[in-house]
Structure formats: structure tokens, C-alpha cells
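Let's do one together. I've listed all components of the complex below, 996 residues spread over two lines.
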Amino acid sequence: MSEKLEKFKEILGEVSDLGHASAVLGWDQQVNMPPGGAEGRGQQLATLGKLAQEKFTSDEMGRLLEDLQNEYPDAETDEGAMIRVAARNYDKAKRVPSSFVAEQAVISSKALEAWVEAKSKSDFSIFRPHLEKNLEMIKKYISFFPPADHPYDTLLEDYEPGMKTAEVREIFGNLRPKQVALIKAISEARQVEDDFLKETFNEKKVWSFSEKIIGKFGYDFKRGRQDKAPHPFQTTFSVNDVRITNRYEKDAPLATLFSAMHECGHALYELGVSPAYERSSLEGGTSLAVHESQSRMWENLVGRSLPFWEHFFPELQKTFPKQLDGMSANTFYKAVNKVEPSLIRVNADEATYNLHIMLRLEIEIGMVDGSIEVKDLPEIWNAKMQDYLGIVPPNDALGVLQDIHWSYGAIGYFSTYALGNIVSAQLWEKINEDIKDLDEQTRKGQFAELREWLRAKIHTHGHKYDPQDLVQKVTGSKIDSAAYVRYLTKKYSEIYGL
Amino acid sequence: MSEKLEKFKEILGEVSDLGHASAVLGWDQQVNMPPGGAEGRGQQLATLGKLAQEKFTSDEMGRLLEDLQNEYPDAETDEGAMIRVAARNYDKAKRVPSSFVAEQAVISSKALEAWVEAKSKSDFSIFRPHLEKNLEMIKKYISFFPPADHPYDTLLEDYEPGMKTAEVREIFGNLRPKQVALIKAISEARQVEDDFLKETFNEKKVWSFSEKIIGKFGYDFKRGRQDKAPHPFQTTFSVNDVRITNRYEKDAPLATLFSAMHECGHALYELGVSPAYERSSLEGGTSLAVHESQSRMWENLVGRSLPFWEHFFPELQKTFPKQLDGMSANTFYKAVNKVEPSLIRVNADEATYNLHIMLRLEIEIGMVDGSIEVKDLPEIWNAKMQDYLGIVPPNDALGVLQDIHWSYGAIGYFSTYALGNIVSAQLWEKINEDIKDLDEQTRKGQFAELREWLRAKIHTHGHKYDPQDLVQKVTGSKIDSAAYVRYLTKKYSEIYGL
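Okay, and this is what the predicted structure of the assembly comes out as:
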């Protein structure tokens, strides 16, 4: 290994260590930290972030990247890919002045506070001036980069490297009418019964059942753990320490099971990245959409399938005999797949979820290109809800104010959720070609072949391939909603007898 | 504030943040980390340590310290003290080459491995060559510093700034014969009954009782928490997030209560440091001995006193009616103060504990000044055990191999444990002068006045005063064993009717 490459890897390694240390501090903050710790923790995270940034954007790194890009031009090699990804991140980091980052942190932290108040009072006017400022900052951020086909491209690039606004629009454009039509058909069919899901299910038993499921998926508790936190999330401290969090909600006690599967899907991705990429620019998943394809696959394509519950339902029934007395796996399967247009994105079912996302994407694009003004958001939101889902929020808290993302300046993020769903179905079709008896295996509670397929095709590559390239490489086509439409149509036709 | 002072504080703040981040990572390692996390965690800790070292020993820091020492010569002011302590630490850090630190890390990590094996096989010869290497490195370390009165001074200085070997020898020299005589007298008296302490006490109930006690001491669970770990320890993440760990051992179930009090004593010290010293060279406790004086005070002078159990025993009895049926507070008090010469330091009672320390100190001094050779350690160890405690270890695992410290190169550390005991008694006499009804308050379960006394006299000063100066300032004399002898004699005369 050349001396320059070694030095380059050393710096990347230290930047990675700082990032992982921040992840530990962030996890502790959510899982353990007593309230008194907040101020000190904020300072520690700020310092770690600053040092990582300084280290990564140093002149030395700039020189190394310049030399190494010439020495290792082939991005198909690990070294070449490592350098390509690092160079792209370096370029991004250098374009954004640290004074801007500091200013944005202050503005968005005030906006977050205002959002909390606005949501609690269901009063958009409290949040409006702050969202306007956040939007100004986002536009300024975009101005640091060379002009793209669409200004929104610059934002998307941070979450889905290489992805264009036009591509996402086309994907969603194809999907939307079909998904709207499907929901309409379902709404005219006879609704499934799911009242029993709201009964009391003992928290400890639900938690331990969730760990039984993800243990069978292959989540290795010697390389991870599940803890309680206000919101479920997955976090990575190293390729052999990948943790998830979960929660228990009295109103939806079995949601804990699906959250565990979802976060486990993220965790299996991170646990499956090639150890050779550890502490480099190739570690971790390649994009939010591909990450979400993994979590949604385990949660929905596996975890909300009939074969899955044919395996697990008898044991669930034994664990909760009172609540599930005399019920069939099929009844349970239908219940956990109930479709019902609802106001809140995070509670939406599989069939309606993407429509929540499309609505947000259109508003984001409009805000960024100037065709939508912040002051009009509540009205636009409600009109689109009527169009897509046939319901209108009674107030802004249940409408335009429901999500935290815009308050801390995250614009460009939402579409990755829907793209993840779409990719999960594309992969699923491919997997079913390669593993002929997949359903049969699922029915036996066997997940090793599926997991290893994902590891070999997706996980192991880490950040080496950009999302579109990876999906192309694995499925033979770019991200496309056709498979997802086929999946939804087949599933809900069976459940609702369409 | 001058620009230089501001920059100086900024660097100290970042160094402190890195230290606290390392503390979080270390805590997680002991409390939560799945086994897979070990390798990555080691790298993260190494990187954080390296960055903190680089930042603290930068040329910029050197120039700032030089200028600031002239600008703020008065060490009685906070700024002056901050600069004085930072300059001392800077000087120490600069003297030791980073190549030496790296070499020592490798050697001591191998020695630690060898020690684990040697202890498990009770075979000193496995550990001997590694201890010899550790000792060589220690001598090399000493050679980086200007010659002192005794080479051991240089080691002591790292744990007890300003303390001399001659002083410690004199303190211990005065104490030893009196402590040996006391133990002899006790051994001739009628032994107290403590068999019931080995019964089964429900873990959850013991744990929650321990939290009841330290809650009454004033440990604020909004600024800390108690978790399970293989060894009890206290760790600081910020002045408002100071945590402790504890364990439950079947063989000594109520030891959990005393460990909680001990670690709480450490925690109250850290929680009581002036917030003005946060993220500076003055944060945290001033030395290991003063720290230990706090933990031992809450554990022993408070927690093993009769008034304490007059308050808590009735509730303990209610919690464990079967085990403590018909017993008096006085019987319980005597049992938890039973004196019995034993082989293992960490299990030693208050009366014999210091003798374990003195033995180690004499051996350490001898190793460092060359009067003791490593090969003779088992023999010397056993001879001193016979002399001081009248018992001889049947093997090296229960003798010279019992402690981990020498294996990772910590020589100079042990004496601080005994000094802590001594200081705790000196402070206790002073406290009893200032708070006339202290026993009465303890009997009522009231600890606020004691805690606030300690906060005002000791805790708040953080690192501002060196240990000898602080003890002098508070008690009117330097560290001296007379008070400790008076305390032990009075306590055990009552218990054993001497």
C-alpha cells in the first residue's frame, strides 16, 4: 500500500472513529441519559463534529485526494471507490462554509422550538416565519453548489447520491395514479376486522417476542442489542456493534413487533457491510432509500406476509391466548394489513404510506423552486390530502405540522422513504427468482438464505455503489415502481377480494 | 477576558469534551456493549485519546501557557489556578514522548494478558517477565522527569500532586504499629456474629434499597444513574451527569449497599464541583486520595456507623423480615463491622484494609529504587502478610497476583486508597466540630448538612488546590493519621469491648 493511501486511510479511520463516538453519545442521550446531561452532551457532540469536520476537510486530505484520484482511477476497485466517495464528500464539505453550518444550526434549533410550540397549539402561523428562514438557508445551501437540472437535485444528492429530481418525479408519477386507484378499490371493499389489536398485550412478553423474531431473522445479540427509547432507530458503533431501539405503545401494543423487524432490517444491512470497509468512506449503507428498502422488506414483505404469520402466529397465540383466542393466522395477517386512509404518515399502512410521501415531495420541490410559498402550505396540504387520500385534517397539528423534518431544516429527505418501499419490491421479485421456495422457508421460520442473499448482493458493498447503480446491478433495472405496484395489487386483491 | 485566555479555555474545553466522550464510551463498554463491539471501541478510545493529547500538547497551547502564566500569576484566583494546573499537566505530557506511550500501551496490554493467565493458574513465573518489563518502562518514565528526592515521587505526583514519598512513608510509619496492635487486640476479643449476612437477599430489593440510601444522601437521579457492571465505579460525563455502577454478588448480597454508598461518595464530589470549572483544568476531584476520602466517608464513617443503622435498619428489616427477624440495629451494625484478617484486599474490613496497602507501597518503593527484585516478590509478599496480618496466602493467586494494577503498569496508585481513609477521618473530626448534632441528624436519616459542608469545603474547589493544601486549608493540618487511629480505636473498642 502506498504511503499516501495509508495516510488517507488513517485520516478516514479517525474521522470514522469520531463519527462512531458521536453515535454512542447520541444513543446514550436517547436511551440512558439523565436530564441533567443535556447541556454537556450538546457540547461534546459539537466538539466531536467540529473535529471530524476539521480533520476531513484539512488541506492534507485535499492534497491526498488529488494525488490518489490519479493513482487509483478505477472506481470498481475498493481503493478507487473509497477515494471516489471520499472525494465527493470532501468536495461537498469544502463548499459549505463552517460559518454557514453554525448559522444554520442556530436558526434550525430555534425553528425546532417554534415547531414544538406550533404543533402543540396547532397554529401554523407560529412556525411559518421559522420555516421561511429554514427555506432561505436551504436556498443559500444550494447556491454553494454548481447549478443542477433542478435546484432540488442538490438536496436529494445528500441522501441519494446520483439521484435526480426528474427521476424521482417520474417514478412517483407512474406510481401515484395506480396507488390512488388501488386505495379507492379497497375503500369500496369490505373492511377487515382488527379491533383485537387494541387489546392489552403485556409489554414484557411483546418485547421478548420481538427479540425472538429478530433473533430468527439473524440479528446477533453478541453484535447488537435492543433498548427502549422514545423513538425506534438503528445506530452503528462499528460493524460488530449495531444497535436498535424500540418502544411500546399502549394504543398499538403489537407495533413493537413491526418496529423491531424494521430496525432489524436496517441493522442487518450495517452488520453485513464488508469488514474491509470498516473505518473508511465505504462503511455503512449506501443511501437512505436502499437502507429503507432493507427495513421495509423485513417489516412488510417478510413480516406482514401470510407465510410469516403461518409460522409465528401459533406461538403468538400461545403467548397471548386470551387476546387471540380461536383466531386463525389468516385473520391475524389481514388485521395487520388493514388499509385505511389516515392523517398521520408514521401510522399509515403500506398501501397509503407512499401517498403521504408524494404529497411532501411535491411541496418540497415547490418550496425550493419557488412555485409554492410557505404561507400557503396549510391550504395546499389539505387540498392534496383530499386528492390523494380523500380525507382532510381537521387542524394543522394533524396536517402540515405533523412531521419534525422541516423544522430542523431537513428538506429532501422524505422521498427516500417511498423510494425504499419501491426498491424493496424490486429486490423481492429478484429474490423470488433466485430462491424458489422462499415462501416455504418463511413458513418454516427459516431466513438464512434470504439474509445471505441480501448480504451478498446489497449489504457487503457498503457505500461502494451509488443507489441507482446498485439497484441496476442487482435487479437489471434502475429504480422503478412497477414491481411495487404488482406487489401491492396482488397482496391487497387477496386480502380485500378485489 | 483576554483573547488569549479565551482561546486557552476553548482548547481546554475541547480536550475536556474528548475526555468526557471517552468516559461515555468506557462506561458503555462496561455496562452495555455487546462482545462484538470490543475491537471498534478500542480504536475509538485510542483515537479520542490521541486527539485530546495532540490538542493539549500543541505548540499553540505551549505559547498560550507561557504568556498566561505571566498575565495571571496569582494561583488563588480561578484563572491563575486553571493556568497553573494546566501548565503542570502540559509539562508532564510534553516530557513523555508519544512513542513511549505507544510502546508502553503494547507492553502493558501483553502484561495484562499474562497476568490473567498467571492468576488463573496461580503461577507467578508466567507474570514475572512481564512485570519486569513494566517496571523497566516505569523506570524509563521516571527518567523523563527531573530527579526528585526519591524516584517514586515522580509516580506519586501523577496521582497525588505535590505529595512526596517521604511524607507518605511518615504517615504510614506512624499508623502501622498502632493498626497492627489494634488488630491483635481484636483478634483476642470475642468475635461478632455475621452469618446471616450470607443468606439470600433478593437482588431487586437490595438494589432498590441501595438507591433509597443514596437518594437520601442526596444523589440526584436527574443528574446521574446507577447501572449494573462487573465492577463498581463512578464516572463523570459532565457536572450534571455523574454516574455510578454497582454489582450484586450472591456470596455477599448486602455488599451492594456499601458499594452504592462508596460510589455515591465519589459521585457527590464530582457533582459538587463548581460549575464555573466545567470544561477546564479545574473540573473534577483534585486527587485520588481526596476522592477516596469522600467515598470512604459515605461508605464507612456514615454507612457503617451505629446512628446510620439506627435509622435504616428498621426499614431493612421490614424489607427482609425472614433474614433479619428479631435482630437489633446494634447486632447488624456489629456484623457489618466485623474485623478478620483476610487475604484479599478488596474484601478487607476497615481495620485491616490499610495494612494491605502498606505492604504494597513498600514493595512498590522497593521495586522502583531497586532494593526489591521482581523475582523475590512472592516471598516478600508472604513474609509481610505474616508480619502485618498474621496470615500467609496458600498460593500466589490469593497473594501477590491478586490485584490487576501492576499488570497494566499502574505503580504509585495503591497508597491513595489508604491516604483516602486517613483523610476521611481528619475531615470527620472537623465536621463533628462544625456540626454538633451530626449523629442525631444521621439517626434521623438527614444528610443535607453534612453533604453541604463537604460541598462547600471540598467539592466546590475541584482541582484548584493540591491535596495537601486542601486538607491543610480545611482541617488546619496536613495529612496525618492521628485522627484515623482515634476513629478506629474508638469504634472497635466499642464493638469488641477492648
